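S.,

Sequence below, as promised.
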Amino acid sequence: MHTQLIRSGLGLVALALPGLASHALAMDAATPPVLPIDAMAQMASAQAIAEYRRKLAEYQQARAAFEQEAGAYWSAIADKRRTRNAKRRDRQPIDADDYVLTQPPVYTGPRRPINPVPELPRPPRVHKAIPVVADLLQAAQQQFQFTPQRPTSELQFKRAYARVAEAAGLTREQAVRVYSFETGGTGNYDVQSGIEHGGTRAISTAIGYNQLLTTNSVELVAEQGGEIIRALTAKAAQLSGPARKAMDYKIAVFRRMLAVARSVPDDWSAHERIADTQQGWAIHAMVLDIDVGPLLQTHKLLTSVIFARNKGYTRPLTAAELEMMNLTGDGTGLDMVTMPQALREQVPTSNFFQRSGYERNPVAIRHNTVAKLLAVTDARMDSNSNLQGARDLAAAF
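The prediction came back faster than expected:
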């Protein structure tokens, strides 16, 4: 609009002064067009720009002071964590001095001011594609020429899971309450994080009763593959005809998957790299299989139970304690689990997170001590255990 007005004015001058027409047109051609953002910048007054710069300096000063304080806090968190790990290795007792007992600093300074001169729009963020069930099934077929055997009903999978979990030593309370927390008490065997309760977009690759990620599946296959093959082989021995042939083929495919999972060191980051490939997606598809899926779901919890036992923690884990290990990893979860109640009331949840993870976790921020976090986990389990999916799983035991 501003450009058109400039051009109209030049045209009027050209009509009034014919001798200057060619000169005016030449100047018009040599002057670059004024972009909308430039025009808007010209409209920003010097006073507005000066005020913005003043407020920006105040914001930057306040933010820098906060970052210095926050940096020192999170460095202390990391230092205390290293001390606790060293003490555990040496079997030394851990007490309140081994934790940061203050809450993380919260920024309370001025907000970043809005620039009166519009900035060029940033290119849109490219979000990494998250595979969904259809992608996993396609990968299994393409990579291993295999389609997981899915249950004929949700109850069939729940019964299979209950049999495997109970035989492995998990209690009904542990299995049902963790399921209630992870799936909201209504999730099916193929429920994916984000695609539930009306959600339409996957927010992670977490699938199933215990919400296994692709990396979980690769790691479980790598670490528990031998045990899973023994369980499948024992089941095959009871079959005959086409059912036996199908099971033998499933075992052969699983052995190939096991070889892929063990082709790298037994390390989370190495397993994560496989998980981000078509072969990793194919391995993750086994969570959906009626024979393999219950074994993977069970081992996800069982490894935490065994980890605690191997570390000398012999008391049965409550479902909330088991969920802490399931959510935060065995080492970090056990740190919370082994803490006496009096210390749980004191220790902030920030002690068990990296800064970036903590700041993205509103639950840990709101329920900011170990005792509060366990209490809200138990409360959610209590509520969701009354829903139909949880009741069906409980009845399957």
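Confidence is low (pLDDT under 50) at residues 1-32.

Coffee later?
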